[in-house]
Amino acid sequence: xxxxxxxxxxxxxxxxxxxxYKDIYKHIGENCSMFEVPYSFDNGDAIYVDEEGLYHxxxxxxxxxxxxxxVVGNALxxxxxxxTGESQSVLTKVxxxxxxxxxxxxxxxxxxxx
Length: 114
Prior knowledge:
By secondary structure, the chain is an alpha+beta fold. 20% of the residues lie in helices and 38% in strands. The protein has helices at 21-28, 94-100, 106-113; strands spanning 2-7, 12-17, 35-40, 46-50, 60-64, 71-72, 75-80, 87-88, 101-105.
């Protein structure tokens, strides 16, 4: 299935292939051992991030325009089938994300949360 990877270092969005939950860890980052979903879209897509992101080295983060604070590290956006709860290909388009996501540096992150 298709997912969108948000790379906070390169400040890019990339469509990637996911075959199982292990791929979620891989695309979020090499130190990721637990992920969480801090945000779900109305269409069933969800943003997956490293639950322990603040405990790892990170270069920055991102936030949606209506969020009061950012999340750190890379993320993956993956769809969800409402009936079964299973993952499915992402429905959100990269162009939509580019309009609504703002990248923040590590320093900007700490300025926001302190």
